[in-house]
TrEMBL record:
The chain crosses the membrane at residues 33-53, 59-76, 97-114, 120-140, 161-182, 188-207, 248-269, 281-302, 314-332, 344-368, 380-404, 410-427. It comes from Streptomyces harbinensis. Keywords: Cell membrane, Membrane, Transmembrane, Transmembrane helix, Transport. Residues 26-435 form the Major facilitator superfamily (MFS) profile domain. Coiled coil: none annotated. The keyword Ribonucleoprotein does not apply. Pfam families: MFS_1. It is found in: Cell membrane. It is a multi-pass membrane protein. One of its GO terms (molecular function) is transmembrane transporter activity. This is Major Facilitator Superfamily protein. Its main location: membrane. InterPro entries: MFS, MFS_dom, MFS_trans_sf, MFS_Transporters.
């Protein structure tokens, strides 16, 4: 009897030690491939795009408004068309969308490197954006699907896998600009061609390693797994079901409020850094701070939060932290501090915004499968990004006007702080039946 008890205890202890092992070591091959893909995507993307505005203004000679228009077109062709990419993922599967998107991204970067007219530049950036609208919903929705399978197998919360996915993307966003800065010592064309080279490697890797039938996929209306290229997974009926799902639409709006807040890293934060120091030189350090926080802290934060908070509470806490970041700057602005010390409120804002991001993004991605079910995950993932992108497009225009409306200095930041707080009641209070 004692021997049986000892063997049982050893098996139990072995399972406990396995559960505490690093997530990466315990993941199957497909989730690992998706995580590495997200890292590589961002390395290739951020090696080129952060330097596009300067290239268009200096080398091409575009006017400032036209540069902004081109950058806006790229964002729209990506975020605005995510729902199309998601629909195609449900219809045709992950593998063909990733491969097609990589081919288009390679062509777009190559075209951009040699584009020397406005029409050629517009064509190239539209192709670059549409490529992401194909492969990003495929990779993100499949990462969420595999995270759910991981959780159902008893390995731990799905948010841990999605946190690793987010951290890998942020690591790529950190390394990409460093690589691009080195490549620009040659010229912008070299940066574009090397960015295309990264996607050539991703294309080759997926052509060899991505399974033709992805485990866990179902066709819409089916009762079991279906081949990736099989039955239509997102017909008009699926879209109607989505549009009647008020709780999911509310979740998308709440997530959009976070993205609008995060977008202030590129709108309100540069304005504050310029006011405080007279230049934007410190902006790069604040961006680096944000990226390093996610790379270093995303996994431990997600592990501890996953043990204490459900998905709704995690998103709510993240939104309140984001609001607190704006409030810190709002409180400090009336003092009118300048100089290096005046960057402290901006740094606190970046830290709180980034910690809020670490709570919100994995939770939102983990929540989508509960609404979509396995057959419509691409459509729902794409819709989440498209709705959020539309809210950011409209909200950013309003924010720009607010920041330069001559109001008391604290008012714009207080308004921005109120938006995430108002989004908290939109979060659904119970998980849908699909869970």
């Amino acid at each position: 009897m004692t021997g049986k008890f000892t063997r049982l205890r050893r098996r139990t202890d072995g399972r406990a030690r396995a559960a505490e092992a690093p997530v990466w070591r315990r993941l199957p091959a497909l989730p690992k491939l998706l995580i590495v893909t997200q890292f590589a995507f961002n390395v290739g993307f951020f090696a080129v795009l952060p330097f596009l505005a300067e290239h268009l203004g200096t080398a091409i000679g575009m006017a400032g408004w036209l540069v902004g228009f081109v950058l806006g077109l790229r964002t729209f062709s990506q975020q605005g068309l995510f729902v199309v990419g998601g629909w195609l993922v449900d219809r045709h599967g992950v593998r063909p969308l990733v491969l097609t998107g990589c081919v288009l991204r390679i062509a777009g970067f190559g075209w951009l490197g040699y584009a020397d007219t406005t029409a050629a530049v517009i064509g190239a950036v539209l192709l670059i954006g549409f490529a992401a609208a194909l492969f990003s919903p495929a990779v993100e929705s499949e990462a969420a699907r595999q995270a759910v399978r991981w959780e159902e197998a008893g390995h731990g919360p799905r948010t841990r896998v999605l946190a690793l996915f987010s951290a890998a993307g942020q690591a790529g966003a950190f390394i990409g600009p460093l690589l691009g800065g080195l490549l620009l010592l040659a010229d912008f064309r070299t940066a574009c061609l090397c960015g295309a080279g990264v996607f050539v490697l991703v294309l080759a890797g997926h052509a060899r390693l991505m399974p033709r039938h992805t485990p866990g996929r179902e066709a819409a209306g089916g009762t079991g797994p279906a081949a990736d290229g099989g039955q239509d997974g997102a017909d008009g009926g699926a879209v109607r079901v989505l549009l009647r799902d008020r709780r999911f639409l509310a979740l998308a709006c709440a997530y959009g409020s976070y993205l609008l807040a995060y977008n202030q890293l590129y709108l309100a934060l540069p304005d504050e850094v310029e006011r405080a120091t007279g230049s934007q030189a410190a902006l790069a350090w604040l961006f680096a701070l944000s990226s390093l926080l996610v790379v270093c802290a995303q996994l431990p934060v997600s592990r501890r939060v996953g043990e204490r908070l459900d998905l709704r509470r995690s998103m709510a806490a993240g939104l309140l932290l984001v609001a607190a970041g704006f409030a810190v700057v709002a409180v400090a602005r009336p003092a009118g501090w300048t100089g290096p010390a005046a960057l402290l409120p901006a740094a606190v804002f970046v830290v709180l915004l980034t910690v809020g991001q670490m709570l919100i993004v994995p939770a939102a991605r983990a929540w989508v499968p509960d609404f979509a079910g396995p057959a419509r995950l691409g459509l729902y993932t794409g819709w989440l990004s498209s709705v959020s992108g539309l809210l950011v497009l409209v909200g950013s225009s309003a924010t720009g006007a607010l920041l330069h409306a001559g109001l008391p200095p604290a008012v714009p930041w207080l308004v921005l702080a109120a938006l995430p707080v108002l989004a908290v009641p939109l979060l659904p209070r119970r998980r849908p039946a699909a869970s």
